[in-house]
Request: fold
Amino acid sequence: MQPVISIPTGTYNKTCFVEISTPSAGGTLLYSTDGSDPSKIYHGPFAIRQSAVIKAIVANGNERSEIAVSEITIQKPAPRKGTVAIIGGAEHCREIHQKLVEMAGGVKNAKVAFLPTSSSAPYSAGMDRKVRFAELCGLEIDENLVPAENGKRNYSHINNKSRFWIIPVAIINDENTTGNARDDDSAPMVNESTFPAIDESTWKLNARNPVYAAKLLDEGFNVVFMTGGNQARYLECLYYDDYTETPLLSAIREILEERGGVVSGTSAGAAVLSKIMIQGGGSYGATLAGVVHEDINLVNYDDEYTPFSEAKDGRVWVGRGFGFLPDYIISGTHFVARGRIGRLLTAAKYLKGLRKKPVTGIGVDEDTAVFVYPDGNCEVIGALGALIIDTSESKALKANRGMSVFSDPFTLHYLEHGDVFYIHPDTGKTEIKSINADKKKITQPSNRKYYHEPDIFGHNCIRDFIYHCLIQSDASCAIGTEIIDNTESSYDSILFHDLVSEDTILFRFSRKENTSGYSGSITYHWWGKGDQEYPRLKKEIETDRFSYHDIHVDVMRLDVLNFPDMSDSSNMPLKSDYQKDGYTEEEWQELFDDRKNYRLAFILIPGKEKTELFTFFFDYAYFDYSRNGRYSPPRLSLNDPDGVYKDYDI
Reply:
């Protein structure tokens, strides 16, 4: 008996959500949407956004039912492309939220749908975001339009008619929403005791239900905000097992591609914006060993799965995302804070090989967003900045290949609030369109010291290093490597024995003809660190901020032939002990500087036309977490009280 297609032949003025059923049990439903013979397994409802000819049959062994056919004609207004916002994570400032609402027509017109799928506290994350949109940018949210259950408003309810809706799609249940939750003082913006009793684990299949997708479109939501957590959970919920789109994913795509809306994501939600996204890995391992390209297994989904066979395998793991961003962009988050330039660069060079055209990496730092507009222009908004990796001159990489011993160039920009750049979709070349008017071009460099940076993947390192040692210096170039990680500031700390056996990576930063730097101020508003000053909104004016663009970068593998023995360095004074004895901090610092040792190091950089030799003095002194001066020899390992294998000294 032939199957039944829920939408009959006809002409429609909006997207149709199609379901296929069979009156009898048994057999497999197969369908097609292009008029060809049905061959695709039917997993559940799907969206038809453009005219299509749907055919369906039931296959039972060698037997085939009669073919059901529905010819659907869709007539909709001309599409209007929207904006994608890549948010680097830990976003607190007002300016990001204001820009999202502005792009949706302002507080009178914006309707925000919050997608909490990746979070381990889905409803709570949504309520946190509701406060930010309401109080940071004045989004008008009428709680009287939100259904109440036992006197508690439920913002995830299907009948929520307000301007803020928590889309009920998630995997993890938050125990604080299942029963009589108490208010958590560490989260000052939300009161958990006001939450209705919800088991978010029951939300897992809701993306397949056309009711929720239809609500998004029929009620005119024009901002979709995807929260942080584990990006794999987005794929598990918003795709079927064969990566067919659920109705909800198709509805979000329509908001972006046809209705001029805004699709934004923070942290994990920003990673999944890319067509091929970064799922994990580190900078050190990625630059040396390359890429693991593996899609999330949706048939046998494991929330903690990783393709790495051992802990120190730090290759960058890429796999399928949602593709809201153009295919010539790949996003990175928590970027400068976690030293992620190595893994984003490696991923971009790998995707350049797949695409056969350049791919631009946009690495967005915390509390910052990059808005990608329909015309190809991109604007940085927020408290920090973004690093832009231009691979138009770079070589492509194969999956399990790291960087070569010969230099491979790319162009780097660091841009902050109000700066605008453009990416050419075919050539991949990036062009700086404008710099925030509150910054002035640097014409007289102020730094006359030259440095080698031995922890280039360190916390907040690369941004400041380039500025102080190249933009504000008269040096011809600046050299950065990853051979020391004294305070484990790198996201993927290296071990001494790995360094000796597997080498490391070298970055050489130099000027181009159009290299420029700018310094000045930026202004933003927030509730203080961790929102602890809520509801008092603080205005921050930071005067020592900077942007720079068109930095030429050569990257190559660095062979480590020898490592200096520092074991003769001893009897270094502890600041805390000296201060107890009445010494001043300045006296201690002078003694510390006198006693510490330096070692001479050589870096040999081979080139096709010339070979360069750089000499440096390495200074292995550092401050520990108590601000004591330390000076230690390299050690192979050090076990902490929890038995975790670490190396504190290199």
